[in-house]
Amino acid sequence: ISTVVKMSHVVKKRKLDKTRQDRLYFDSYSDVTIHEEMIADQVRTNTYRTAILRNTESIRGKVVLDVGAGTGVLSVFCAQAGAKKVYAVEACSIAEQAVRIVRQNNLQDRIEVIRGTVESVDLPEQVEVIVSEWMGYALLHESMLNSVLYARDKWLKPGGLILPSKAELYIAPVSDPVVEDRLHFWYTVKDQYGVDMSCMSDFARSCIMNSDITVNSVSVEDVLSHPARFAELDLYSVTTEELRSVKGQFRCESFGSAAVNALCVYFTVTFNCPDKPHALVLSTSPFKPETHWKQAVLYMDAPVDVVQDTVVTGEVSMYPSEESARHICIHVDYTIGEQKRQSKTFTIPDWSCEAPP
């Protein structure tokens, strides 16, 4: 799940009260565009469908809770896999469309759409399965995972199934050629127009290589090392307290000579599939087919040259923003080769502050 991120201009930071944070978040899912984007993401939707159908034995005749059901597509998949009852809990007005979709597929006797947050609804029974597509940009933006964990602790029977059951975070150094082209542009103006504007390059660098988490597709050829996993979340055991700071260390070795100007963060989620030799993995890696999550790109203040086997090490810490708990911050301490250690904190621009109260 991921909202459209507006990154056009800097806004004044101020703390939003939780009710307004939630309203802005849920309102962002009331428009058709985001649901079209998610359903059209075949990697996302087909992986969930395959995972649910491969778990038919665990779902058939069972009670399922779909947390943040949206259009209800996952609830329909669960009903198709033989679920006895599916509670599709959805807080925003798209729930009205989910009701229509359920009726159109003649599943109203088995799927009940409930409008409300999972923290506020009262289910008539415990469930044996929880399914949810809760992932945001850089995995944790929007922090919907908290709602899944609440549902797990309140409604899931002991020994129940959670789909997906595990999430992992990865990081790799990258070279973004577009940034280098944009920075070099100011050196070309003199030849073009007879006006030397090369002094603009420092200003351009500060604007482009800023502290925003940039959601973008990273090309395979721009990834400069094997990615390193820095965190793993087991959805059966992770706590909301642990989500207040998800951190880990990483070590990467450069493939060859290049200029590192950013770090790329992406995630995978894993679905356990009984009777199958391998679990099913939904990956947002730049080495895999593109998804609507793309990757989270973190620009350094300045590029650093590396050669083959140059070591890039560091620590990543992800935590909720003070301004809005639904927004994620990423703090990275990193060392490239013999360079001194650098630190930088990144945020997804809080465009919601622009909305009228």
TrEMBL record:
* Enzyme Commission number: 2.1.1.319
Q: Which PROSITE patterns match?
A: SAM_MT_PRMT
Under the heading InterPro entries, the entry gives: Arg_MeTrfase (IPR025799), Methyltransf_25 (IPR041698), PRMT_dom (IPR055135), SAM-dependent_MTases_sf (IPR029063)
**Per its UniProt record, what Pfam families does this chain match?**
Methyltransf_25, PRMT_C
Task: Please verify whether the record's keywords include Transcription regulation.
Answer: yes
Q: Which GO terms describe its molecular function?
A: histone H3R2 methyltransferase activity; protein-arginine omega-N asymmetric methyltransferase activity
**GO cellular component terms, A-Z:** nucleus
Q: Which residues does the UniProt record annotate as the domain Protein arginine N-methyltransferase?
A: 166-338
User: Where would I find the Methyltransferase domain in this sequence?
Assistant: 64-160
Per UniProt, subcellular location reads as: Nucleus
Per the record, the domain of life is: Eukaryota
- Keywords in alphabetical order: Chromatin regulator, DNA damage, DNA repair, Methylation, Methyltransferase, Nucleus, Repressor, S-adenosyl-L-methionine, Transcription, Transcription regulation, Transferase
Please tell me whether the keyword Nucleus is annotated for this protein. yes
Q: What is this protein called?
A: Protein arginine N-methyltransferase 6
Q: What is the lineage of its organism?
A: Eukaryota, Metazoa, Chordata, Craniata, Vertebrata
